[in-house]
Amino acid sequence: MIFGKRNIAGQGDGVLSCDGGGDSGEGHHGSVQEGMRLSLSGREGKSLQDAESIVEKRKSWYTYIHRQGKRERALEIIMGHAHDDKSISSVRSFVYDMLGPAPDRGDLLYRYEHSLRAAENAAVVAEAEGLPKDDLIIACLLHDVGYRECRDDFRRHPFFSADISKSYLEKIGYPPEALREMVKGIALHNLTDDLPKDMTVFQISVRDCDDIDRFDMIRTAMLLGDCVNEKTNQEIIASCSQAIDSANWIMSLPRGTRTAQDMINENCRKRIAFLQDILAQANKGL
After folding, report:
1. Quick check: 26 pLDDT over 50?
2. CA distance 224 to 275
3. Residue ranges per domain, the chain?
4. Is 132 within 8 Å of 1 (Cβ atoms)?
5. Pick the CATH number of 48-284 from 3.40.718.10, 1.10.8.60, 1.10.3210.10, 3.40.720.10
6. Which element (helix H / strand E) includes 266?
7. In a 3-state reduction of DSSP, which class is residue 9?
8. For 95-113, what is each residue's pLDDT tens digit?
9. How far apart, in whole angstroms, are the C-alpha atoms of residue 168 and residue 165?
10. Rounded CA gap, 3 and 131, in Å?
11. Which of 163, 156, 159, 187 is nearest to 47 (CA)?
């Protein structure tokens, strides 16, 4: 299977950063820091080979999970899905079991539903751009599968998710070339503008489909509440202005395809319009 070569829609310069708690949808839903993500620039290299070495340096998920008392649970779930038929519905079931939503963990139910929306975005992007549709959908379903296992260290979730996905996909006999693309896309999905030069369109599209959901109307509603709830006019102005800057920055980032760029830009422009209306009202009280 031949995947797309590097052909990025839009180019930008800047730094990679971190959104604090992972995806800015857990614990502090809709934070104005939503555009900020994990920095791998400088400290840990920029090529895919460097990314692979990062995963090695951070050690196998088996070792880390064992230290955290999680290894047995994760292995048990993978083995329980060892005979999955590689279908989207089977992978969806695996992701649900790995995240393990419970009444006291609404964040993980949110995470599962976010993964479904990212997969829906993948279907649209793959069809429009001629990418392997099922592979991209499955990669997006799996992109956050390690959230429960990384406990509170959400910045590491791409690495946990990539390693868990690799173990699962190998166990069910997924085609090796497609598996390699999917796992790398998952491992790198938290990168922003400083992308590895040899990162493929498929790999970038995993991150793009995640971003499309991160700036959709559900996340915008979360953000708006965070910007205005029990805040003074001055605080609202500051929060909304920062959120507008974040949305503009997100629109400036390089994307794997024109389709993804257009979808993200549409979501960001809608968000900015809401924020500008709030700013106008807050300024009336000054």
Report:
1. no
2. 7
3. 48-284
4. yes
5. 1.10.3210.10
6. helix 258-284
7. strand
8. 999 999 888 788 899 999 9
9. 5
10. 7
11. 187
